[in-house]
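Figure-free illustration: sequence to structure, shown twice.
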Amino acid sequence: MISNSRIVPKHDPFDGDYSGNVFDGHLHGALYAMTGRQNPRTGINKIGLVIADRYESLPGAFGIMFDQRFVPNSSSRYLRVPREGCAIFLDAITSKRQSDEQLRELSFTVIHELGHVFNLQHTNATSFMRQSAGHPHVFRSDAFKFTQDDRYRLSQCTASRHIRPGGSAFEDLGDMANANTQKQSQLSTVLDLRIDLSSREFWRFEPIELDIQLYANGSRKKSIKIPNAMDPGHPQFCIWIDDPDGERWRYRPERRFCGGEGTLTLKPEETWWRDLAFFGQAGGYTFSKPGIHTVQVTLECHALGRVESNKLVVNILAARQDDPLYESAKSCFEAEAIGMLMHYRCFINRLPPGTNRLRDYCDAFSDHASAGMGRYKLGRAIVRRLKQDGKESVIGRFRHLASEELKQAVTDRSLGDGRRSKAEKDLLSL
């Protein structure tokens, strides 16, 4: 709640239950409830603003713009609309702003996020597109405006698909881009970044995870503090992919964060780790063609310089018709509900349809890496929902299912130490 104001949404797809954390699935579901089936080829006439308490993936975020959603194996143009909506999070705003600043911050954040929907990018200039979450107070009145360049871009909304919502992908500004580009910083001498994949050879629909490790190199004797921007939704964090034809492109996240990342403290000889669902991105699967690809991550750390990871060589397998493993994995993971469960690692109100098919697949092909990953993601998604709703909720009767899947997942050697540790903690919580 912002001061004494009450916001009543026009559409309420979850019956008023926006308390606590919301997940990516909530956001995309709420946006779809507002905008419906829009065809980007003929132009869209609706954009959505989602208002919620706080975002589970980044509780400090004031707002995000989310791009095309991921839906496995879907050719529907209606699910591939770029820049269709954004969200703001009231708890983050009220926790960082005094009561007399909250309405001004809310106004600023709403216009900032809507600016992203029109493909406006962050700037250091005093304007609506400057990031505010990292500042101790709301910006002064002179920031409540757009720069001259952004005003020109907005004036071209009708004519340019690079500005018009539903047009080009976020960050694809075409002839609307700035002539000036930021200089690339020097390589960091104090940080190291290492990446790996849960499997180096897989079909494009398999639920692959990207493992990310960041650590201070051996020459450091003191802790280092950096912005906790270890997610492709932050502009500082980029995943680059080179395909078999030599084309280099950037992984496209479905949501773009606006500050709120906090700080990450790296102690000497300590490794920070996270995993990231990697087989899907905004608009569809990450990999569109079979063959050898390379994957690399770069991280901009301001005064500490730019960090470049190792390069991974991965093989995207071609289709194998009449292969029982291929046919079963394709049928299981390309099913919309299961593919989205594997990608978002959560579900909204009830177990997704196809859960029994997933369990049957994991039983039949228990030696394959995708089986252990399937059990891990299903078990953790149930635990995540239990933490949200409580053990006495409707979903509480699936506690035994979560326990069974996680117990089998932790015995899978391909799961990796980091995911195994997460699964063991979840088991203890049950």
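We now fold a second protein in the same way, so the two outputs can be compared directly.
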Amino acid sequence: MVCRETAPAPQPAPIAALYPNPADGEVLLTPNFDKAAAVSTSFQTTVYDGQGHLVIEPTAAQPTLRLRTATWQPGLYQVVIRQGQRVSRQQLSIQH
């Protein structure tokens, strides 16, 4: 019997970029809209703390979302971004 390793499937590009990460006072969330797909360019964002508690569900009228994180406790956060049927989860580190 011959075992062959297969290459992992390529991961889709994240729906948005978080910068800077790690962050201190604020984070910019810039969407990477999938122009080839027939999906809306609107997106929803939800941020959870390390215990899974909801921190914020911000809304933005501009394509770039600015999250003010100066009052957040240091630690790791999960940023969930939804665009149409696509869902992206990214980890955000807050360090003061």
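Summary for the second example: The domain at 16-94 is CATH 2.60.40.3580 (Immunoglobulin-like).
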